[in-house]
Amino acid sequence: MPQFIPDPSSFDILRGKVIVITGGAQGIGAGLVTRLHQLGAKVIFGDISQPHSQSLLESLGNPPTVTAVEADLATYSGNYRLFRTAFDQYGHVDHALGNAALFEHPGPSSWIDPNLTIDTVGDEALAHPHNKILDLNVYGLCVFARMAAVFLRENRPAGEKDASITLFGSVCCIRDSPGAYIYQTSKLAILGLLRSMRKPVLETFGIRTNTICPGVTQSPMTKRVFHRIQARGLSTQKVDDVVDMTLGLMSDPTINGRSLYVERGTGWEFEEELDRSMQIWLGEEPTKLLRANAEYVNTGALLRDED
């Protein structure tokens, strides 16, 4: 896979930019809020946890250029409130980062549970925690993308051509994650969202869309497993490693439609490589058939009622 090496000197292009972030109170989101504030960006972040949001603001010295919005980002109204707050405050939005997500936990409520029986599996209460994961990780992110496509094209500053949407996936987009039934499913959906957006959203609105897929990162989401993985000498990384790669994608106006696997401060782009090597892993004949269909679909055929 082509290695992606961000140029930190390019990050200064984000100074003064209006940037919306979901799930900004902890973990990678908080790291992004912090670094973007240090770079001089105007940051509006949403999170359902007011105490964590307030703690982050206090750690930054309650700067006027960082705004926290209490919002349930699994809902339509929560996402709208976040973007509307940014727009009403600054008159436009330059970049949007969809980071909010939930992870499932093992135990009696595991989705595929050997202890479930034909009687107990009918209890609808078993679905509630997993519905929350799908609501935030899939529906919430789809709503986020819809809002971003509208707000990022409104009142674009004169001479400012670049705007971007960054969707946060996971290493689960690439490898098996046994037992993370709903989480892995939800993260794979993000690749589908990227692949459906990257062409029409750029061509129609001039907005770039990319995806970050981090490996195991030290954050509240991974606290249950992080040290066990680290103790075995396996690959782990810090929040700043992911932040640098994200800023690199945001800062380069030529990058669109890419998925970046991030591990130990290094990034590898895999969308283009998957396409380039298709004949090797899929075969010559099916690749020919697929590409012929794709050529037609890429004309926007799926969006038309009829030819």
UniProtKB/TrEMBL annotation:
<protein>
    <submittedName>
        <fullName>Uncharacterized protein</fullName>
    </submittedName>
</protein>
<dbReference type="GO" id="GO:0016491">
    <property type="term" value="F:oxidoreductase activity"/>
</dbReference>
<dbReference type="InterPro" id="IPR036291">
    <property type="entry name" value="NAD(P)-bd_dom_sf"/>
</dbReference>
<dbReference type="Pfam" id="PF00106">
    <property type="entry name" value="adh_short"/>
</dbReference>
<dbReference type="InterPro" id="IPR002347">
    <property type="entry name" value="SDR_fam"/>
</dbReference>
<comment type="similarity">
    <text>Belongs to the short-chain dehydrogenases/reductases (SDR) family.</text>
</comment>
<keyword id="KW-0560">Oxidoreductase</keyword>
